[in-house]
Amino acid sequence: MRHRVAGRRLGRDTQHRLAMRRNMVASLFEHETISTTIEKAKEVKAFAEKLITIAKKGTLAARRQAISMLGNRDIVGNEDGKTVKKGTVIQKLFSDIAPRYLDRPGGYTRIVRLAMRRLGDNGQLVLLQLVGKEEAVQEKTKSASKKRSSRKVAKTEEAVEVEEVVEAEEVVEETITEEVDKTAEVTETKESTEAETGKTDETDTQADETEKKQ
């Protein structure tokens, strides 16, 4: 009987359980988020936070202690179809992850429940992730929203400028049409006056001719 024995067996013997815990924590430090069942996440969470607390010391003894507890797995990536070594898990833990939490007394990880369940045994799936990862995503979304708002403001300013240009063009067109109308009226008045003078001249000539005949 397991009276008051701490920890979960997870259906594995001791060596298998410890190896699984080391692998999951190494994957968490490498990718900063992993998907697993809620029982495994609760079991791994305490071990991951203990390693981060050790890494915050930054000493050689702390580095050796972390290597003895976790191992020092390589981080490998693919570039142009070739596998390239990008560092180790301990190197990332001490140089990148631990400095984030120097002002944080604890709570370096979080468990997010997912709506889906695992096929086969219907186990509850969760995300185990580092807290700083979420803050970085929020900062990225905020910066993206700021960029969108600035783009909208620029677009509105451009629209206002276009409207002003259109209004100025309309004013110019109106003035041009008014001037054209005025010139047309002047020409019409000139033509009417010339026609009237021409008629008077013809009547005068006709009167002179009649007088000469008489």
Beta-strand content: 15-25%
Helix content: 55-70%
CATH class of the domain at 14-130: Alpha Beta
**Uncertain parts:** none
Rg, rounded, reads: 44 Å
Tell me about the largest β-sheet. 3 strands, antiparallel
Envelope shape: rod-shaped
Oligomerization? single chain
Mean pLDDT comes to: 82
Indicate the CATH topology of the domain at 14-130. 50s Ribosomal Protein L17, Chain: A
* CATH architecture verdict of the domain at 14-130: Alpha-Beta Complex
Beta strand count:
5
N-to-C CA distance: 158 Å
Number of helices: 5
Spatial ordering of strands, largest sheet: 1-5-4
According to CATH, the homologous superfamily of the domain at 14-130 is Ribosomal protein L17
Please provide the ordered H/E string of secondary-structure elements: HEHHEEHEEH
Structural category is alpha+beta
Describe the protein's architecture and organization.
The structure is a single chain. This protein has 214 residues and is an alpha+beta fold. It has a domain at 14-130: 50s Ribosomal Protein L17, Chain: A. It is built from five helices and five strands; from the N terminus they run H-E-H-H-E-E-H-E-E-H. The chain has helices at 14-31, 38-55, 60-70, 89-97, 131-213, and strands at residues 33-37, 74-79, 82-88, 109-117, 124-130. Strands 1-5-4 form a three-stranded antiparallel beta sheet. Strand 4 and strand 5 form a beta hairpin. The longest helix has 83 residues, at 131-213. The protein is rod-shaped. It starts with 13 loop residues before the first helix and ends with a helix. The mean pLDDT is 82.
